[in-house]
Write a structure and sequence with these properties.
Blueprint lengths: L3 E8 L17 H12 L3 E5 H8 L2 H7 L4 H9 L1 E5 L11 E3 L4 H10 L5 E4 L2 H9 L5 E7 L19 E8 L5 E7 L8 H4 L9
Parallel strand pairs: 1-5, 1-6, 2-3, 2-5, 3-4
Antiparallel strand pairs: 6-8, 7-8
Pfam families: RibD_C
Protein name: Dihydrofolate reductase family protein
């Protein structure tokens, strides 16, 4: 089964909205390598319409311009791009199509197809749906050492918790943390009575 990974730029206070307004001062070779290892290595992209419109409005021109980012732009252009939207869409960027049918059923079928990893960048609404249906395999968070203090957070309010387990972590020279999580089993019930034995004890 194919693996679905989501990568997000996120602030210290959990904001994921409009990273173009705050994350570029932290973009270095380390972050570039992390982005390429996720987004650039996948053969399929699953993205929301707003993210797609942003990508399609920039990357084809960057590929055509032949600049420093043309190689990465070509990777995105060559990848299969599956767009989630309630509206009927038409596409000009090559290898683009719309996700059809029930979300959970369509994504499950996509995971069962032959091929490499499926990646997301941004597309918070899609990430939330994947997590709600248990279809997201890895969540890559590039945590920036800045409190944006306004904008949409990754996790919306809910009556249920969402346990995760840490798979790996790395600290970049900019202070950005690259944290990789996977879904975890539900946490067991515990109280302060269970926790207090882990407090430091008086040796005297």
């Amino acid at each position: 089964m194919r693996k679905i990974t989501a990568s997000l730029f996120i602030s210290l206070d959990g904001v994921v909205e409009a990273p173009d307004q705050w994350h570029f001062p932290y973009f270095n070779d380390e972050m570039g390598a992390a982005v390429d290892a996720g987004l650039g290595a996948a053969d399929t992209l699953l993205i929301g319409r707003k993210t797609y419109d942003s990508f399609a409005g920039a990357w084809p021109d960057r590929e055509a311009a032949g600049g420093e980012d043309a190689h990465f732009a070509k990777k995105l252009g060559d990848a299969r791009k599956i767009v989630l939207s309630r509206q009927n869409l038409s596409f000009t960027w090559r290898n683009s199509e719309q996700l059809k049918g029930d979300f959970a059923e369509a994504v499950t079928a996509l995971k069962n197809e032959p091929g490499g990893d499926i990646a997301l960048s941004g597309s918070v609404s899609v990430v939330r749906q994947l997590m709600a249906h248990g279809l997201l395999d890895e969540l890559h968070l590039l945590v920036h050492p800045i409190a944006v203090r306004k904008g949409m957070r990754l996790f919306d309010e809910s009556e249920t918790t969402l346990p995760l387990k840490l798979l790996s972590s790395a600290t970049f020279s900019t202070g950005v943390l690259h944290l990789v999580y996977a879904p975890a089993e539900s946490t067991t019930d515990a109280t302060y009575e269970d926790a207090k034995s882990h407090l430091p004890q008086d040796d005297q």
